[in-house]
Amino acid sequence: QVQLVESGGGLVQAGGSLRLSCAASGNIFSINGLGWYRQAPGNKRELVANISSGGTTNYADFVKGRFTISRDNAKNTVYLQMNSLNPEDTAVYYCNAVYNTYRLAAWGQGTQVTVSS
Questions:
Q1: What confidence tens digit (pLDDT) does each residue in 69-85 have?
Q2: Over the stretch 15-53, which tens digit does the pLDDT of each residue have?
Q3: Where would I find the H helices in the chain?
Q4: What single DSSP character describes residue 30?
Q5: What spatial distance separates the first Cα and last Cα of the chain, rounded to whole Å?
Q6: 36 closest CA partner among 75, 103, 89, 86
Q7: Which whole-number Å values give the CA distances from 115 to 42, 78, 79, 88, 107, in the listed order?
Q8: Contacts of 100 (CB under 8 A, 6+ apart)
Q9: Interior angle at CA 39, CA 36 and CA 45, nearest 5
Q10: DSSP designation for 82
Q11: How far is C-alpha 1 from the chain's CA centre?
Q12: Can you tell me the distance from the alpha carbon of 33 to that of 112, in angstroms, rounded to the nearest whole number?
């Protein structure tokens, strides 16, 4: 199994920046990809960005040019640098890992990001 622990959420003013971190532990060698999702109240959980084991990145249209996903394999950590935040980015952000040959999913506990106008 894979365990994920997020950190770095908080309250920021519109136009500001935050960096989220997600540390993976457990069967880390089976991880195929890592990603970030978010869920605002009343909304479905949606993909923000993901990064493959080879470093290929994918972004939702609503964050392109503002958010950057990266991973440090030595630290088993994935990051989400969020710039130019706006109130619509307010949500709980969840780290996600897809692992082993059955492509199982692991989730972190979530971290709250609140952007004030």
A1: 999 989 999 999 999 99
A2: 999 999 999 999 888 899 999 999 999 999 999 999 998
A3: none
A4: G
A5: 40
A6: 89
A7: 17, 22, 19, 8, 23
A8: 27, 30, 32
A9: 75
A10: E
A11: 19
A12: 22
